[in-house]
Amino acid sequence: VSTQSTGRFLNVVRDDFSKSELKFLIKCADKDENGKMDCSEFVLMMSALHVAKIEKIRELRDMFKCFDRKGRGYVDVPELGRLMSKSGIKITKEECQKILDEADIDRDGKMSFFEFVLLMENMTEDEEEKALYEAFQLFDLNGDGTIDRAELGNVYKQLGQELSPEEIDLMFKQTDADKNGKISFDEFKTMAN
Q1: What is the pLDDT along the chain (193 residues), one digit of tens a residue?
Q2: How far is it, in rounded angstroms, from Cα 101 to Cα 8?
Q3: Which of 36, 100, 116, 123 could be joined to 128 by an S-S link, Cβ 3.0–4.6 Å?
Q4: At 2, phi and psi to the nearest 5?
Q5: Which of 74, 146, 125 is nearest to 104 (CA)?
Q6: What is the Cα–Cα distance from 79 to 170, expressed in whole angstroms?
């Protein structure tokens, strides 16, 4: 099936996606980039779209884009390792491979967006809490248990997305519930959920 036909099908079945979101989903689903959607690509995409709500898919898409810096629609071991390293997490190639193997349903050596969605949706509450805390620690550069404006800006800059002071202020306005100028883990969890 052509990716265009799949796009039309998705538009009918899930009319809550914008055109740019549909384009992103189709690009991620067509892992071999041949312009056609084979059965395994289609099943993986539909499985992911079935388990996650639209808001969660959008949230995970933004998270995935931090990993998929080249915009290929998938993440491989070197890319995962570079991101973790840039974020201050010491991780071996073997540990990166284990994470990728856990998510890699079709065993092609890559984690697609849809595999990422399924991995994230299948986490238990404890695993999700642990993953959120690890993500929080990526931002808490000085290890004081909070995220300040400078830390937030620095992490986004390391990830290749520089935020303006206004964008940082907006994020704090939406997240810093007690208005103390720092984001606690509890505030971070609320934002992530």
Answers
A1: 677 777 777 777 666 677 777 778 877 887 777 878 777 777 788 778 777 777 778 888 887 887 787 888 888 998 888 877 776 667 888 988 988 898 888 888 988 888 888 887 776 566 777 778 888 888 888 999 999 999 988 888 877 778 899 989 988 988 899 999 999 999 988 877 6
A2: 32
A3: 123
A4: -70, 155
A5: 74
A6: 30
What is the CA 128 to chain-centroid distance, rounded?
A: 13
Dig out the tokens for 62 from the structure.
């933004």
3-state SS assignment for residue 71: coil
**Pair of tokens at residue 64:** 């995935």
Altogether, the residues listed in the chain come to a count of 193
Residue with token string 């967006």? 113
Those residues with Cβ within 8 angstroms of residue 72's Cβ, 6 or more apart along the chain or in another chain: none
Dig out the tokens for 100 from the structure: 């990728």
